[in-house]
Amino acid sequence: MRKLLVTGGAGFIGSNFVHHVVAHTDLSVTVLDLLTYAGNRASLAGLPEDRVELVVGDIADAGLVDDLVAAHDAVVHFAAESHNDNSLHDPSPFVRTNLIGTFTILEAARRHGTRLHHVSTDEVYGDLELDDPQRFTEQTPYNPSSPYSSTKAGSDLLVRAWVRSFGLEATISNCSNNYGPRQHVEKFIPRQVTNVLDGVRPRLYGAGQNVRDWIHADDHSAAVLTILERGRAGETYLIGADGEKNNREVVETILTVMGRPADDYDLVKDRPGHDLRYAIDSTKLRTELGWAPRFTDFATGLADTIEWYRANEAWWRPQKSAAEAKYAELGH
Ligand code: NAD
Ligand code: TDX
Predict the structure, then answer these.
(1) Half-sphere exposure of 247 (CA within 13 A, CB side)
(2) What's the whole-model pTM score?
(3) Interhelix angle 298-311/313-330, nearest 10 degrees
(4) Average pLDDT over residues 302-331
């Protein structure tokens, strides 16, 4: 394997993956990214031009996708509409990109017999009660809640069908909530960090009791690379770093690290259908493929991430007012 096609590589996790691949392998990478509001050319800045090329285009463009898939040894598919709140406001780009886009990639991979890794989310499993001792496993039934998670669930099922019906050499991973550098300011952690930098109080949905299972984007990237190199075709792997925290705890840590009183936040209107808790059991990935997270202390990883936003205002500032205008419309 020499040449990787990475869809969505100018987004948050995709760009972290490209940086990880360049640092840890000798593969060359073509990024296919539409540069929607969530994609950013600057996220690929500093990477060697002889190893990383950006093609600006749509994963639902069958001709372009066919040409690119034909010219690469493997595809890692990150591109998606990724924000739940946006999907509750206008689901249409989610259906188009997450379902039609994934279908387009599957058809090209089938035609050319190309290895595919499909990147997905733990949200396909729905949510858990706060006191439920169970965590999600590869056997948990699908039960998505939002337009975002239902289109991701649909994309996973398409991949499974192409494996079974056409013998496509594909793997799937379902990962928990990521944090780290280059995440769009619409998402929870960067929104609150940049609010504090702007002198605005963080905003917690509902009572702030919802639990997310946090993992650093570099640990997610290492897991995806491990599955690409050593995963068994047709298998699904859950990716998680035992990072369960409720939203209140996360905001209190952000405020403390940033030198503000821990209770300096507001409770605002809840998200409709807001999933209560996600929790991942990643035993299969750890025991079968030997992956383990490097960022095991959330407070340290979060402090590094806060430092990144402090040092990279030029990266996030152009996104901030449009993201906050959308939230003002939604009452968040
Ligand atoms: P993101 O929104 O930051 O990035 C998505 C990227 O895809 C952007 O660069 C965007 O320009 C590109 N894109 C969107 N539509 C496209 C299209 N039609 N054609 C080509 N490119 C297009 O998202 P992210 O948070 O980096 O998530 C990446 C993937 O990881 C998604 O598949 C998401 O479901 C999955 N995931 C995310 C998380 C998380 O916590 N963020 C957790 C688990 C899984
Ligand atoms: O301002 C906020 N206040 C708040 O309390 C925002 C933006 C969010 N929240 C809450 C909602 C969630 O409980 O914080 C939690 C995290 O919210 P998001 O960052 O929107 O993430 P989530 O909905 O959990 O989904 C994320 O993880 C799974 C990613 O956006 C998805 O792409 C991924 O699949």
Answers:
(1) 24
(2) 0.99
(3) 100
(4) 97
